Amino acid sequence: DAMVIQNPRYQVTQFGKPVTLSCSQTLNHNVMYWYQQKSSQAPKLLFHYYDKDFNNEADTPDNFQSRRPNTSFCFLDIRSPGLGDAAMYLCATRIGGTRGTDTQYFGPGTRLTVL
Amino acid sequence: DAKTTQPTSMDCAEGRAANLPCNHSTISGNEYVYWYRQIHSQGPQYIIHGLKNNETNEMASLIITEDRKSSTLILPHATLRDTAVYYCIVTGNTGKLIFGQGTTLQVKP
To answer: What phi and psi, each to the nearest 5 degrees, are found at residue B70?
Structure first.
C-alpha cells in the first residue's frame, strides 16, 4: 500500500564518502521532490523533477545531485558528505498539471548520519 | 509564494477542538492555502487545502476569511495521535511547498 517508498530508512556514511538515497513511487506522478530536514527545522526543498526536467533550488549546494532514470524512481546523490549534511531526507511526489492539485505525498524519509 | 505566520506552539485537551490559526496577508488571488502536519520522525502528511471557500474532509475543516488574509485549521475532536507540527503553506503557480516553522500542537490527556 505504500505509495512513496524511501530506502534505506537509516543510512550511515563516513565523512567524504559518496552516498545515494533512493525514492520510488507507485502513484505515477509527474513531479518528484527532495527535501532536507535538519534537526528541529522545517523541511527545505533541494530540487525537483517535473518529468525529466530537473529544477535546482538556487541555494542547494553543488554537493547534492539527483537522477531520475524513469517515472517511478528518483535518487539523491551526495558526492562528499560533510557533518553538516546529517539530516532527514524526504522524497515527495505530486501529480503535476492542473492548479489545485498541488498535494504532495511524502515518503517516510531517510535519516542520514555522517561519521 | 506568500509567506505565512503561525504561533510557535499550542496545547489542546484531548477530545476538544483544536483551532490552529495562520496569517497569510500577502496571499495573491491564485494562491491556495495548504495544511500539512508532521508527526515526529515521519514524513509530512497532507491534511486539507482551499482557495477561498471553507473546506471539510475526514481529517479537518479549513476556514478561510473572506479577504483570504488568514485561515484556521480545525481538528474537531483532537486525540493524542494528533500531536504534531502543523504547517500552513501558501502555494503559487510553482506548486512548491515552502515550509515555515509551523505550529507544534501538543494534545494533552
So the answer is: -155, 165
Nearest neighbour of B43 by CB, restricted to A44, A96, A106: A106
- Cβ contact, residue pair B43, A107, below 8 Å: yes
Alpha-carbon distance B24 to A70, whole Å? 37
Which chain A residue shows the shortest CA-CA distance from B97?
A45
**Rounded to whole angstroms, how far apart are CA atoms A111 and A88?**
4
- The 10s digit of each residue's pLDDT in B70-82 is 999 999 999 999 9
Contact A71, A57 (CB under 8 A): no
- Summarised one tens digit per residue, pLDDT across range A64-94 is 999 999 999 999 999 999 999 999 999 999 9
Closest CA to B37 of B99, B80, B90, B94: B99
Q: Are A32 and A23 in contact (CB under 8 A)?
A: yes
- The distance of Cα B3 from the centroid of its chain, to the nearest Å, equals 13
Q: How many CB atoms lie within 10 A of CB B10?
A: 16
Other beta carbons within 10 angstroms of residue B65's beta carbon come to 13
CA dist A23 and B17 (Å) reads 36
